[in-house]
Design a protein that fits this description.
Length: 349
């Protein structure tokens, strides 16, 4: 891992246009992911984690619009490029695995057809492999024929299915999504992502739709892949235990804002934002006897008419008067620990 950022998200604001009004989903989201780093993004459902990921990949629905900010990937602003260029980036440099694999796998195509397509989208890579292995009969300038490309792609499909710990790869390639279990489908989705050899791998709640046993297997797979995969990872989840095992840093989101960002060990040892502290208290712990788990009072705000100032202040037991009117800036309090809270403003340090 290096200190050079691969992805920089700067003050991104995003609205959804609905019949009920403008949903202010993201309110100045700012964070970065370093090269080779695994960043976990946590928070309650509806806080903007998945919307942030869709903004990065250019897969936002038509009723969404980014009103300000920038998303820099390797120095290029993804919000200002054309759809065709964004598609090429998704085909080779940014890969995303979604929560429910059934929704994103084509039910009328076999796993092999869908996985081969990922490799065929990058003919230059197939040509390079063919020339190195001597599999092509064509000249160096022309590269392998279409049939040779498919043969190479099938070999790569088998390799990547083996990489995600799927047995009997030849049979899996001939099967349709409905013939596989939920865990196998999710492994196929991870394989399609890894097939791109991406610079940035985004995993959005990829264990939520699976039973506990399969969840453990997928997490073990991700842990192994983290050691083998040299790119950067954005792991989106609501489970702090998952990010504690798999990530280098944690970003905490609330109602469209990053409220805290820190190294994993630092955040667990010294949570600062009242929302982060509430999330920590809600985690069941061995050796701590409670009649019932602690909860954060109140509910997630309506983002059509969000609270003024700090969006967490109606639920915060430590809210100051200025919290109701002034949105706190992200403040570095040392050791790369960043928090957006008036409790840690300059006038109180």
């Amino acid at each position: 891992m290096t200190d050079e950022p691969l992805l920089q998200i700067n003050q991104v604001k995003l609205d959804f246009h609905t019949y009920a009004g403008e949903v202010k989903a993201l309110d100045g989201v700012t964070f970065n992911i370093k090269r080779g780093e695994a960043l976990g993004l946590v928070g309650e459902s509806g806080c903007g984690k998945s919307v942030t990921a869709l903004s990065i990949t250019g897969l936002l629905p038509e009723n969404a619009s980014v009103t300000s900010g920038e998303i820099l990937f390797a120095g290029k602003n993804l919000l200002s490029i054309r759809n065709e260029e964004m598609r090429k980036i998704r085909a080779s440099r940014i890969a995303m695995v979604f929560q429910d694999p059934t929704t994103f796998l084509n039910p009328v195509l076999t796993i092999g057809e869908q996985l081969e397509e990922v490799f065929l989208l990058n003919p230059a890579r197939l040509t390079s492999i063919a020339l190195k292995s001597g599999q092509t009969k064509g000249k160096t300038k022309t590269g392998p024929s279409r049939s040779e490309q498919r043969k190479i792609a099938k070999t790569l499909c088998i390799d990547v299915l083996r990489q995600v710990r799927l047995g009997d790869q030849e049979r899996v390639l001939t099967q349709y999504p409905h013939e596989l279990s939920g865990g196998m489908r999710q492994r196929c989705m991870i394989a399609m992502a890894l097939a791109r050899n991406p610079d940035l791998f985004i995993a959005d709640e990829i264990t939520t739709a699976l039973d506990v046993t399969i969840q453990a297997q997928i997490l073990e797979l991700l842990r192994d892949l983290k050691r083998e995969f040299h790119g950067s990872t954005l792991l989106i989840t609501h489970d702090l235990g998952i990010v504690a095992e798999l990530c280098d840093r944690i970003g905490v989101m609330y109602a469209g804002n990053i409220v805290e960002l820190a190294d994993v060990k630092e955040l667990f040892a010294n949570p600062l934002h009242p929302y982060t502290k509430g999330l920590m208290r809600a985690i069941p712990m061995l050796g701590r006897e409670l009649d019932r788990l602690e909860t954060i009072q109140g509910s997630v705000p309506d983002l059509i008419n969000p609270p003024s100032g700090c969006r967490f202040h109606p639920r915060c037991p430590f809210a100051l008067e200025q919290c109701k009117s002034v949105k706190p800036d992200l403040l570095d309090v040392g050791k790369g620990h960043i928090v957006a809270c008036h409790l840690y403003g300059e006038e109180r340090t």
